[in-house]
Design brief:
Layout (H helix, E strand, L loop, with lengths): L1 H10 L13 E5 L17 E4 L1 E4 L8 E4 L7 E3 L12 E9 L6 E4 L8 E5 L8 E5 L4 E3 L12 E8 L4 E5 L2 E6 L11 E2 L11 E9 L5 H10 L13 H17 L1
Antiparallel strand pairs: 1-15, 2-5, 3-4, 4-15, 5-14, 6-11, 6-15, 7-8, 7-14, 8-9, 9-10, 11-12, 12-13
């Protein structure tokens, strides 16, 4: 009976055999609805500012977002406060396809102080343009040739901000460890641009995620390999509360007998 009950609870989404990678998930933009809605269920729907379209051009042929440079404020404003005071530890990333190799940023709330940012940059690069993160004191870049930005190719990029344990990942592999000393920005998180400097990303984005904790290397690798699966809540059957109540009474009777 114990196994049947637990199995039923698992089927109803009321119990879990292990913690999921979705623990701490703040927002997930899979663009499957053809807009910037938050698929995590947390209500952090994004607002399209400019230069964004949606279509079946995402990673592996799924729905995705396409970004073009506008010369002004553009991208998607998520409205999420990622300042260190609001979110001491942060992990953000997704699948990105850079069509133009420039200094475009894919995730940023930069206000001019090398605030929390993920994107392309030439500074510190040994090969021209690298996937990079802002550390608060400068630019941290992925120098490995195997992790170079490839024009027109989908690449999985993520950054973990966690003080001295911060890290940049490309295609599920650690690219660089660093110490983050990021300050405070006036901006919320944008997808597809640096809001202060119009460093617009030109290309595609898909399965963009934001976590309010520092994901481990294994968790980053798991997301790279398996993605993020959002399991919708299953409505309780009409008689389920009575079933639980009856099981409780049955257990009480058995203990007393």
């Amino acid at each position: 009976m114990k196994h049947v009950i637990i199995g039923g609870l698992l089927a109803l989404g009321l119990a879990s055999p292990a913690a999921a990678v979705t623990s701490g998930l703040v927002a997930f933009y899979d663009f499957e609805s053809g807009d910037a809605s938050d698929a995590s269920g947390n209500g952090n729907d994004g607002t399209v500012v400019a230069g964004v379209t949606f279509g079946a051009t995402g990673y592996a042929g799924s729905m995705g977002a396409e970004f073009t440079a506008t010369g002004g404020l553009s991208g998607i404003n998520t409205g999420i406060d990622i300042n260190p005071a609001a979110m001491p530890a942060l992990t953000m990333g997704g699948w990105f396809r850079a069509d133009t190799i420039n200094n475009g940023k894919v995730l940023s709330h930069d206000n001019g102080g090398f605030d929390r940012t993920l994107g392309l940059d030439t500074r510190g690069s040994v090969s021209g343009v690298d996937w990079t993160a802002f550390s608060g004191g400068g630019v941290v870049d992925a120098d490995s040739v195997a992790q170079d930005v490839i024009a027109g190719a989908w690449q999985h990029v993520a950054v973990v901000y966690d003080g001295a344990a911060s890290a940049l990942y490309v295609n599920g592999t650690l690219a660089e460890s660093f110490t983050a000393t990021n300050g405070t920005s006036i901006w919320s998180l944008f997808i597809g641009t640096n809001p202060s400097f119009n460093e617009d990303f030109t290309g595609g984005a898909d399965d963009v995620f934001v976590f309010s904790r520092a994901l481990s290397a294994n968790e980053i690798g798991s997301i790279y390999t398996d993605g993020i699966t959002i399991t919708p809540a299953v409505p309780l059957p009409a008689g389920f509360p009575l079933l639980i109540g009856g099981l409780g009474v049955l257990g009480l009777i058995r203990r007393r007998s």
